[in-house]
């Protein structure tokens, strides 16, 4: 995994972009609550849209206590046009209420407690652990799942299986880097449609790239 991450880093740098992922940008704030809410907002939504909505929301509501007391209609207006913004506005208010009342405004750091929060699955919980607390975990989103299978690192059908398999083959010291590099690599090179295989150093060993050449 170390070599894979190093090669991804080189290819990302060759694109001459220092742009981080949406969560990489949110992480700069050092606030697990912002990471949590931004990750919930990000579902089925592009990074730029999510980041804009998150910034608007937290300019007005700085913490769980303030967000818990917000009107749902006001939250809707601030997070629109993220996907399912009507549902998400209600759920993130509920999340804020739970964290304010049950956790004294501190986001829980344990996986089991995170998973009990509304709209929080394993990917979101792992994102909070990695980007919010810098605690080793492997958040598997569509990019991580797609790229891991394309490169032949794993052979899995669902993200939950990918997380399990990657945790077996990747040394824990690299877990914090996996999501950030895989996502950036997926956005720039190993795209869902029309990946730039000709620019990729993995093309000779990548199962997907080799099958693509055979079919062309």
Brief synopsis:
The protein is an all-alpha fold. Helix content is 62%, strand content 0%.
Could you describe the 3D structure shown?
This protein has helices at residues 2-14, 22-27, 32-42, 47-60, 64-68, 72-79, 85-102, 111-115, 122-133, 142-150, 159-169, 175-188, 207-215. With 216 residues, the protein is an all-alpha fold. The mean pLDDT is 95. It has two domains: 2-18 and 138-215, Helix-hairpin-Helix base-excision DNA repair enzymes (C-terminal) (Endonuclease Iii, domain 2), CATH 1.10.1670.10; 31-133, Endonuclease III, domain 1, CATH 1.10.340.30. The two termini are 30 Å apart.
Topology:
Blueprint: H1 2-14, H2 22-27, H3 32-42, H4 47-60, H5 64-68, H6 72-79, H7 85-102, H8 111-115, H9 122-133, H10 142-150, H11 159-169, H12 175-188, H13 207-215
Helix pairs in contact: 1-12, 3-4, 3-9, 6-7, 10-11, 10-12
């Amino acid at each position: 995994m170390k070599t894979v991450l190093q090669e991804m880093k080189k290819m990302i740098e060759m694109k001459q972009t220092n742009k981080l992922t949406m969560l990489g940008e949110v992480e700069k704030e050092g606030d697990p609550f912002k990471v949590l809410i931004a990750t919930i907002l990000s579902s089925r939504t592009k990074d730029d849209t999510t980041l804009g909505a998150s910034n608007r929301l937290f300019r007005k509501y700085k913490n769980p206590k303030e967000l818990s007391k917000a009107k749902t209609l006001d939250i809707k207006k601030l997070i629109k046009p993220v996907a399912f913004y009507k549902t998400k506005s209600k759920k993130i208010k509920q999340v804020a209420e739970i964290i304010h009342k049950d956790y004294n405004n501190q986001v829980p750091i344990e996986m089991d407690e995170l998973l009990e929060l509304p709209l929080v699955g394993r990917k979101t919980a792992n994102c909070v652990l990695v980007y919010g607390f810098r605690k080793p975990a492997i958040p598997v989103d569509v990019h991580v799942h797609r790229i891991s299978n394309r490169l032949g690192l794993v052979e899995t059908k669902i993200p939950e299986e990918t997380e399990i398999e990657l945790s077996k083959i990747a040394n824990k010291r690299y877990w914090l880097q996996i999501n950030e590099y895989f996502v950036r690599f997926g956005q720039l090179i190993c795209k869902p449609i029309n990946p730039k295989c000709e620019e990729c150093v993995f093309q000779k060993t990548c199962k997907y790239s080799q099958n693509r050449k055979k079919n062309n």
